[in-house]
Design goal:
The protein is an alpha/beta fold. The chain has helices spanning 51-61, 112-119, 131-143, 146-151, 174-187, 205-214, 227-235; strands spanning 6-15, 18-27, 30-36, 39-46, 71-77, 82-87, 100-101, 129-130, 155-161, 164-171, 196-199, 218-221, 239-245, 248-251, 258-259. This is Sulfur carrier protein FdhD.
Length: 271
């Protein structure tokens, strides 16, 4: 069992009128308080693994750093639930109150628009993936979703090239999964020019903004988008692909990054 991601819980189960008790594997949840230059900045509710990449990705998403080198020192005390970051940059704490960032869906981050204006990027990459490559990447992505398969309680994000998945991250919070991925990219100085991001959840406006901050031009997701997400993706020149299931997918924006089999003719659907 993955001790950092999973725990066991005694569960009473009914099947019709039959009752039994089993131990279920449950996704773990913990609070990590981020201290910046000796002061408390935020508390994140997360899956307590890959904390260092999570903190790096979070700080970058917040616009506090632009590279891992700006973090002079990062110490994680998992037992006490603290991460201590010393930054080379000055952070404004005036008129701030303690923030608690939950793992639930929906807008949970403060300074949503202010921070996004500072950190969101228009993507100019010219990568192309075939529809067949997208299908295969999602199939490989599903195979890596072990913790989701065992608990049903986490999100997953992955970085991939046309050749396959490079790295993946899980968390109970969709933002945290993307931040962990972002932190890994920063730590390893991975170029995003020929990469895409795979995501297990729906495509919300916040997810598009996060992908923009990371710098990827192609987002491949299993679920549906929102209209605001697609407006943002169109504006930020991100290709949003949703409902990737078996050999079906929807390309909503900037379709030039996804190509079909040239031997197949176009079919136009109408109501």
């Amino acid at each position: 069992m993955d001790e950092k991601s999973l725990s066991l819980w005694s569960t009473t189960k009914y099947h019709n009128h039959l009752k039994e008790t089993e131990y279920d594997e449950i996704a773990r949840e913990a609070a990590i308080t981020i201290m910046i230059n000796g002061e408390q900045y935020a508390t994140i509710v997360c899956t307590p693994n890959d904390i260092r990449p999570l903190v790096l990705g979070f700080l970058a998403s917040e616009g506090l750093i632009r590279s891992a080198e700006q973090v002079l020192k990062l110490t994680v005390d998992e037992d006490k639930g603290f991460a201590y970051a010393e930054l080379s940059t000055w952070v404004e704490f005036a008129e701030r109150t303690e923030r608690w960032i939950g793992s639930c869906c929906g807008k949970s981050r403060e300074f949503y628009l202010k921070q996004d204006v500072k950190t969101a990027k228009t993507i100019y990459s010219f990568i192309q993936f075939s529809a067949e490559q997208v299908y295969q990447l999602m199939a490989d992505f599903d195979k890596k979703a072990e913790v989701y398969g065992r608990t049903g309680g986490v999100h997953q994000a992955a970085l991939a090239s046309a050749g396959g998945i490079i790295t993946s991250a899980i968390d109970i919070g969709r933002h945290n999964a993307l931040d962990k991925l972002y932190g890994h990219i920063m730590q390893n100085r991975i170029s995003l020019k020929d990469k895409c991001i795979l995501f297990s959840g729906r495509i919300s406006s916040e997810v598009i903004l996060k992908v923009s901050k990371i710098g990827a031009g192609l987002l491949i997701a299993k679920s549906a988008p929102t209209d605001l997400a697609l407006k943002l993706a169109d504006d930020l020149q991100i290709t949003a692909v949703g409902f990737v299931r078996e050999h079906k997918l929807n390309v909503y924006t900037h379709e030039k990054r996804v190509t079909g089999d040239p031997s197949h003719r176009d079919v136009r659907f109408s109501n």
